[in-house]
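Figure 6 in text form: structure in, sequence out.
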């Protein structure tokens, strides 16, 4: 079960980096936020070691390149807090889970 959960969260992170924002449940948004913020902090360094660390975490070369090239440079001067979680008034029909939108600032 742990591997499936990690894989699911990795896919959420990949979608967030690819598009720039995703809509998911509040719990999932809170779960992936520290993971993505650590990746962006590593991407700011821009070194080969940080690129390899990011690739080891996300498993997709295009996502790692986007983190290091585009997103890391965008937040070069910022010391943290790269993501925003906006809670939505909507809830999922089937289970009533509260939805939220997680996005880069």
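Output sequence:
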């Amino acid at each position: 079960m742990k591997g499936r959960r990690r894989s699911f969260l990795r896919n959420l992170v990949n979608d967030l980096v690819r598009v720039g924002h995703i809509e998911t449940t509040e719990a999932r948004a809170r779960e992936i936020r520290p993971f993505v913020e650590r990746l962006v902090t590593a991407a700011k360094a821009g070194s080969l070691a940080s690129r390899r660390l990011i690739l080891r975490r996300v498993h997709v070369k295009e996502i790692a390149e986007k983190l290091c090239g585009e997103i890391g440079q965008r937040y070069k001067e910022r010391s943290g807090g790269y993501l925003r979680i906006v809670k939505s008034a909507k809830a999922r029909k089937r289970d009533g889970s509260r939805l939220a939108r997680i996005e880069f600032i």
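Caption detail: The chain has one domain: 2-104.
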